[in-house]
Design goal:
about 240 residues; alpha+beta; Structural Genomics Hypothetical 15.5 Kd Protein In mrcA-pckA Intergenic Region, Chain A; Alpha-Beta Plaits; 3 domains; four-stranded antiparallel β-sheet; 15 strands; about 20% helix; about 30% strand; elongated; binds uracil
Length: about 240
Amino acid sequence: MRLQKYMAMCGVASRRHSEELITQGRVTVDGRTIREMGSQVEAGQDVRVDGVPIRLPDAWMTYVFYKPQAVVTTMQDPQGRPTVADYFRDLPGRFYPVGRLDYDTEGLLLVTNDGDLAQVVAHPRYVMEKTYLTVIRGILRPEDRRALERGIMLEDGMTAPAALKILERRRETTLLEITIHEGRNRQVRRMFDAVGYSVQYLLRNRLGPISLNGLQPGERRLITDAERNELLKARTSHC
Ligand code: URA
């Protein structure tokens, strides 16, 4: 197996970041520093990053995690805020989030030690429905709804068509569900900003075949084999 793939599967870093570690001369195989891309490793070889041995996990595990608000989707935060890692310290090995939710967004996040699954699901071309429960300030006008449903121009390009379901019109806010297919940074907030509404509350309650049902903030459960297969089925030919 290629060294960078092996490193990603061990949970060291993404394949791309693993390549950087290799070119920086931080990786050794059986005591020899490897700098060439495309080197192969086999079972039983001693692979180290910064001198620390790495190895494949005993079991691949992926959790559905209910990220609470005011938690950062990283494993460490220079500002000392609570991170997703705080909820996975009891597990052996390195678990890391797949994709991200903003600090103020709560809801469904996958956390895994399965580098293969992470690689597929985090791929920019991976297409998977994501559903968010949202409260926006103001009453959503029909023409704005249609614009979001058709797709709108953001600074990083057109969005794919979204599906919207209005759940409740309140005096000053609208409670709705929006389903999108991409995973761009702050996408839902930016989509509503673009048509003149600010997002007051955001919760991801579904990712493809997986839902948050039954979990409370800070809780987690293992994904089932059927859910894993469904997630991988959505892989595109580019992943
Ligand atoms: N869209 C956002 O704006 N924020 C998130 O956290 C997720 C999707």
